[in-house]
From TrEMBL, chains A, B:
<dbReference type="InterPro" id="IPR036291">
    <property type="entry name" value="NAD(P)-bd_dom_sf"/>
</dbReference>
<keyword id="KW-0560">Oxidoreductase</keyword>
<dbReference type="InterPro" id="IPR045312">
    <property type="entry name" value="PCBER-like"/>
</dbReference>
<feature type="domain" description="NmrA-like">
    <location>
        <begin position="6"/>
        <end position="242"/>
    </location>
</feature>
<keyword id="KW-0521">NADP</keyword>
<dbReference type="InterPro" id="IPR051609">
    <property type="entry name" value="NmrA/Isoflavone_reductase-like"/>
</dbReference>
<protein>
    <recommendedName>
        <fullName>NmrA-like domain-containing protein</fullName>
    </recommendedName>
</protein>
<dbReference type="Pfam" id="PF05368">
    <property type="entry name" value="NmrA"/>
</dbReference>
<dbReference type="InterPro" id="IPR008030">
    <property type="entry name" value="NmrA-like"/>
</dbReference>
């Protein structure tokens, strides 16, 4: 039997890059990276092509027939589209139905969350709902919070080279567990999930390890020998900040720092206060549990990852976003 | 151990009445019927009280503390609230969280359907989403389409006494299966579901039998000896009618006949064309399958129910709605 042909959107992004690597390492897939026509000549895509990845142009703003043609002969379609482009999946899902895609994996790849908390998540939910109206076979995969965004700075500044997300204050008492995954392991899980009949038309939650902010701080202090100041922020403070930033966004709806602040505080509430990034809450929402499905995945332990961080060997992500994150961080803390 | 205490909203309605009967026959529950303060003196509620049902006043427009007080000591809260009152469950769900309800059964009790097809269903979904934001333990129960609404008139008019829903035209080719349940059996399933740990924080689809419109017509012809004219309506015709009625509703948003027509045509598309009222589609949406959960429920067969209908022994439902339904039916057919 021929290998299943996987179409991957977003192969040059952080999540898509991990998925591409996972699919290649699995070895069981015929992979096609789908990219915007005008992006095919960009360096990142040329690099993929040079590595032997089949490339296809996909213009989600073009006519449906062209999108359907770009999906020809693809069995499994994975969308790791940019966070800001979620609604571009509307024509994608409609074309996937026409193209008889056997499994559509719409963009999720984050923390489990109910509807009505977070705009970006709600946009993803719009795509899930459209998928279901289309009766399109699907799998939704959430992967928890990334190792890469999970830890605070050190007072010495020695790990600033890799800090990607503000974790300078600890939500609530700091004892709420959060499911963490090394971004580099995301693709391993995706490769397992998409060839698994048990996950067809299901939502799956995969992750590496459960940690609390207090334990993360303890670990980083132990590995670095530095003492990290611990400032706890109560739930009400995050709620107040969400309300304030929503009010500010009314006058400056496009301001990227404000938008990031909103997402940041909403995530702190969901993940750090309400414990929504946990296997228990995911199960409550109806997810299949990744630990039960794939107990044998060989992933990087959080402790080993944090050793890389402290040893100056970790690799930063979202480099182009970091100045924005740091500005927001400075204003929030 | 004390019996679980069940609070039931809508006990004098069609669905709630069946649930009340099912709970009583089960014998394993301490039942409290919750009704609006001004309704407690109405005949239907006085009848319940005379039968020994405990009654409590519940004012969903009142202050939260009063709603919480009305839910005191209730373990399982079932809402079979009127179709037009779905959003009154917002204060109910919030109070249920404060009252530490162990299992909230928000109003569903219809056919499985994706988000974005049908306003009433979408309102129910709003309540499901709120429930999940509250982290409130829940079970959602859909019961398919009622026997009582499943069949067409006979040319002789002899079963007009009990026809409750227009089925004079057959959606599509008439071979699409639809899951049917005798309204009188709904409560039997609910009694099973609410004491079942497997259904906690899950969505369950329970139903009696699968029938197609062609087979329903065949059966009714066989039982009555009459020939029923068969007019098939294609999908495009329903879509055109939905669009037309949505346009008409813009000028007359409250018109009850228009509103019913919209729902009717949307249901015909979902149930009769897209086969969404089936165990396969329910499973696709993530429902647990009632036939696997409760293979031993003793229900009325569709054939026996239809014999009652033809023999003049069936009981009509929604009597106060029938003139409206018949007016809409006349205009649609």
């Amino acid at each position: 039997m021929a290998q299943p042909r996987v179409g991957l959107i977003g192969a040059t992004g952080e999540t898509g890059g991990s998925i591409l690597k996972g699919l290649i390492e699995d070895g069981g897939f015929d992979i096609i990276a789908l990219a915007r026509p005008e992006s095919l000549s960009k360096r990142a895509n040329v690099t993929l092509k040079d590595k032997g990845i089949q490339m296809r142009a996909l213009d989600l703003e073009g006519p449906q027939e062209a999108i359907v043609a770009a999906l020809k002969d693809i069995d499994i379609l994975i969308s790791a589209i940019a966070g800001s482009q979620q609604l571009a999946q509307i024509p994608l899902a409609k074309a996937a139905k026409v193209a008889r895609i056997k499994r559509f994996v719409p963009c999720a790849f984050a923390t489990p969350m109910p509807v009505g908390v977070h705009q970006s998540r709600d946009q993803k939910e719009e795509i899930f709902n459209l998928t279901k109206r289309l009766h399109l076979p699907y799998t939704i995969i959430d992967v928890g919070w990334w190792y890469q965004f999970s830890f605070p700075r050190l007072p010495s500044g020695k790990i600033d080279y890799v800090v990607g997300f503000p974790n300078e204050t600890i939500p609530g008492d700091g004892n709420v567990p959060t499911a963490l995954t090394d971004l580099r392991d995301v693709g391993k899980y995706v490769a397992r999930v998409i060839k698994d009949e048990r996950t067809l038309n299901k939502t799956a939650f995969v992750y590496n390890e459960l940690w609390t902010q207090n334990k993360i701080h303890d670990l980083l202090e132990k590995l670095s020998g530095e003492k990290i100041p611990r400032k706890h922020t109560p739930a009400e403070e995050y709620e107040r900040k969400v309300d304030a930033v929503i009010a500010e966004l009314e006058t400056n709806p496009k301001d990227p720092v404000l938008r990031f602040k909103k997402v940041y505080n909403q995530y702190c509430l969901s993940v750090g206060i309400r414990a929504e990034n946990t296997p228990e809450y995911a199960q409550y929402l109806g997810y299949l549990d990744g630990k039960s499905l794939y107990p044998d995945v060989n992933f990087t332990s959080y402790e080993n990852y944090m050793k890389e961080v402290v040893d100056g060997k970790a690799v930063g992500i979202y480099d182009e976003m970091r100045p924005l994150l740091f500005q927001a961080l400075k204003e929030e803390h």
